[in-house]
């Protein structure tokens, strides 16, 4: 009996020892990796857990989670050490006064940052002392510059800085505070329901409701401003609870920079794909050209002649010129011009293409004659004088894009040689649609000038161009002959007086500047800048309603502008026959395409 009692007593004592020492062992194992401050903090929590109420413990749980967040942020900082970021200057909240003085060197600072990125590959894990030293140097240098300037200059600069403030500054500030509040909310422990969490959630909800869909400060209500002040108080309290978030800031800044770099790369890739789509021929257009070519060579030689070829040299008719290798685009230009003309039987179209597309172009107009109008199809290779006399000069135009360096693009400068018996001609690009009668252009007096065109020198409009954007005015030969402030004009719909052209020998002038541009960087590739130089002081400004630009790149062109225009131009890369074309403008072009044509159906060319 005595032995049984002794064994029972030993068993009870053993269980009691296990129940006492096991929690101590587990707690010491858990706190083994923490420093002394962290262990004292945990012991404090245990004591407070014994004496405190539930709500007070919930607030302390936030403090506990802050320690965990600091440890986690340190781990995250190690994980993102490979994230690269720009060598930025960290400005603190109270340093807004230095922004004005730093504005004048903004471009220089950006260039330095770019160079540092390329050469050093800076990261966001660098020591903050280096950033602080760099910041102090820049602020001190900027303050010295401000002191060296006269007071009047400093005052004028401070005045000029105010109009640059955006009209939606308060709206942006409110949205920024919501983002900051959500960031602080993400630092709290999951499932926490403390007073602080409830308060910050309420402030976020109230401020989001107050802002709503407002985009301008003038539309903000007084209630919205009150909610923003309440949010400011909550954010101030949050900044006291989380006083040190530098590690998280560096991590987020590095992640933001990498996201911006990925976005920039995607934009460059998208731009490349858009340019590639604009340069290549679509599968449908290639199919159409092949079918038309096969049909053309199946005809007898006498069946390949277009009607009314006796009108080609009549100077009393209305002559139009189009240079293109796009069959469908040329048909739209011809159809839209003929459909709006009062006397279509007096219209003569001269279409010049390359030898590869000559059969397809000829077959299309044999199968689809444009009413009573006359069409002539020529190949650029048939101009023997061009291949022998001007071919070398054509090769001098440098550029990577064949759309701008092709012979068809520069053939417009040889109109007097191509049409020796014509005195007046209207030149149309193949990406235009005619909406009004263009024969009225023959009644306009261009006052002895060789070229009549619509000007593009109105600042603020998408079509705005300056001569110094495309021509190098640092070259003495350019600066002495041209004025950079001279109003520019557009190709696409031009009235040319070939008599004045021949009289002033403008083709020779074109070759002169083309030759100069081949020897030194004088102008950009394309026909537009050299056209400005060739027809300098020889261009008459037409009314702006004759030629509307921008349907190939500007989605802001209004319906009212289109209805007033005589010619709408799809200049840019977003052509109406491409998938990347602006959808709301395609209807003006599709109107003149016979999509029910069997060849278009077979080649999957649809609206």
From TrEMBL:
Residues 125-149 have a biased composition (Basic and acidic residues). Its EC number is 2.4.1.-. GO terms for molecular function: polygalacturonate 4-alpha-galacturonosyltransferase activity. Keywords: Cell wall biogenesis/degradation, Glycoprotein, Glycosyltransferase, Golgi apparatus, Membrane, Signal-anchor, Transferase, Transmembrane, Transmembrane helix. One of its GO terms (cellular component) is Golgi membrane. It comes from the Eukaryota. Pathway: Glycan metabolism; pectin biosynthesis. GO terms for biological process: cell wall organization; pectin biosynthetic process. The keyword NADP does not apply. Residues 110-170 are annotated as: Disordered. The keyword Cell division does not apply. Coiled coil: none annotated. It is found in: Golgi apparatus membrane. Belongs to the glycosyltransferase 8 family. PANTHER family: GALACTURONOSYLTRANSFERASE 4-RELATED, GALACTURONOSYLTRANSFERASE 6-RELATED. This is Hexosyltransferase.
